Fold:
Amino acid sequence: MKEVLYVLAKALVEHPEEVDIREREEADKIVLELRVAPDDMGRVIGKQGKIAKAIRTVVKSASHDSPKKVVVDII
Structure:
């Protein structure tokens, strides 16, 4: 899932070298924290959050066979 998120984020931003993803596991879920350059935040979130929602949907689909729920946080 982390790799899918990384590929998606790098394709969207102008500064792909600043894409950073941290993974932390909690009792019932895996949290992927996506960090991008401040200039690229709008590109990752999109108008009314549509791109962020699409990213979360793709990552959720990619993790369908994972025993834990996967959550994407954009920081």
